[in-house]
Amino acid sequence: MAIVTHLVTRSLERDPFGSSVRCMQWRSRYTAVALFGVIAWTVLVALPGAWWTPDKYSAWATGLSTIAVVLALVLAVITLRTDVKGRQVDRTLSLHAEFTSGENLSKILRFFERARLVRGAGSADDPLFVELIGRHVCWWNCALIRDSSRGTRRALMQLGLWCDAFAGKHKRRYSYLANWGEARTRDFGSTTPWQNDPP
After folding, report:
1. pLDDT tens across 38-54, in order?
2. pLDDT score recorded for residue 35
C-alpha cells in the first residue's frame, strides 16, 4: 500500500500536469486532423461536380457519404470504448484511494462490499483492480475469521476468491502477479483463509 502511494506521489511530483498537458496536445492534434479532413472532404465533393455529369457526381457523392458514415461510426465506437476504459480506471483508482484512507475494521469490510459490487458491475478495470486492491482483499480474507453469516464478510470472501482466480489465470500475463500470495504465506502459513464457518 505504501509502495503504490509512494509511486503515485513520485509521479505527480515529477510531472503534476503531465496528463492534462498530454490531453491538450492530443486535442490540438485532433483539431488539426479534423480541420484537414473537412478541407479535404470539401475538395473531394466540390471539385468533381464542375466536370462530371449529374448522375456520375451523384454516385460519387453517395459513395463519399457512405465512407464518411462508416468512419464516423468507427470513431464513435473507439471513443466509447476509450471512455468506458477511462471510467473503469478512474473508479478503480478512487476505490484504492478510499481504501488507503482508513484502517477501521467495519469500514474496511464495508469498503470490500462496495468494491465487490463495483467490480461485479464491470465498473472497474479488472487488471488494475487486482493490482491495487486484490492483494489487500486476499490478505484481509486470510486475516479475518470466515463467517459467511455476515453479509460484509461474505462479500470479502467472494472478492478474495475472484482475485485469487484472476491472479491464477493471468499470472504469466501481468508481472505484478509473479509473487501473488507470498505475503499471505509468510504471515499466515497459507494462501487460503481460515475455515471457521458455522456448520
Report:
1. 788 777 777 777 788 88
2. 79
In a domain, 131, yes or no: yes
Q: What are the cell numbers at 26? A: 492530443
**119 belongs to a structural domain:** yes
Number of domains in the chain: 1
pLDDT in tens, 72-84: 888 888 777 777 7
Give domain status of residue 66, yes or no. no
Domain span at 133: 86-188
Using 50, 70 and 90 to split pLDDT, how confident is the model at 55?
A: confident
Do 182 and 138 form a contact (C-beta atoms < 8 A)?
A: no
At a CB cut-off of 8 Å and minimum separation 6, what does 142 contact?
160, 184, 187, 188, 190, 191, 192, 193, 194
